[in-house]
Design brief:
mainly alpha, globular
Length: 230
């Protein structure tokens, strides 16, 4: 007789392995399998295929890596470690952030060579100091935060608003503003008015220039920094 939990895990396994389907369903199913404490070669292959193959989009992989850091009892540590070793740059930075956030100093220590190649070896001692009560403000932590900021912006293209407007001196300027969905309606209402608008109230200006259209420099910056094609 098959236990109910085994049936659930098998069904979750099927959902997470779907060739076609909603990324959210696959991510949630895969996470549930981990939360239930099930791990065997079949699941290992499943997660490796999702994280290091072409089945999941980059955004789906980043979401899954974020969820790994929330799992209890260190269940996410093996996969996070593998992501640092084998994942792309964005996935690796996010996995390192997850390891630091959970205070996984031993796991970070085992990744010293990978961290050194990324210029983040100091994150080991900085995380140890953070766990002991110090502020997380070292050079490696600052570098990591900057990389995470770039990752977030580059994966949030749908949140970027383009705006041509006159600045406080009366000169035409062109802005690219990252506006979260919950502030989008307020932002759009504000720019329809006739008064001055503080863009930073509604979002983050990621690039700007004088003129009525983006300059070549801004176009190149957005492509080099975030992968945006303007």
């Amino acid at each position: 007789m098959i236990a109910a939990s085994e049936v659930v895990v098998e069904r979750l396994h099927e959902l997470a392995s779907m060739q076609k389907g909603d990324d959210f369903v696959r991510i949630t199913s895969a996470t549930c399998v981990l939360k239930m404490g099930h791990w065997n070669p079949a699941y290992d292959s499943l997660f490796e295929d999702q994280l290091f193959g072409s089945r999941w989009t980059l955004k789906a992989r980043l979401q899954f890596i974020g969820r790994l850091s929330t799992l209890p009892d260190g269940l996410g540590l093996p996969l996070l470690t593998e992501v640092v070793k084998r994942g792309g740059p964005k996935e690796a930075y996010l996995a390192i952030a997850a390891l630091t956030r959970t205070g996984a100093i031993e796991a970070l220590g085992a990744l010293r060579n990978e961290l050194r190649r990324m210029g983040l070896e100091a994150i080991i001692d900085e995380t140890r100091a953070y766990v002991d009560g110090s502020n997380w403000t070292g050079s490696a932590a600052t570098q990591l935060r900057n990389e995470l900021k770039k990752i977030y912006i580059s994966s949030s293209g749908e949140l970027i608003q383009k705006l041509k407007a006159k600045d406080s001196t009366g000169r035409w300027a062109y802005y690219f503003v990252l506006v979260e969905k919950e502030l989008e309606a307020d932002f759009l209402a504000a720019i329809k008015g006739n008064g001055e608008v503080d863009l930073e109230i509604y979002g983050q200006v990621i690039a700007s220039c004088y003129g009525e259209a983006p300059t070549d420099e801004v176009i190149k910056f957005l492509n080099d920094e975030y992968g945006f094609v303007v």
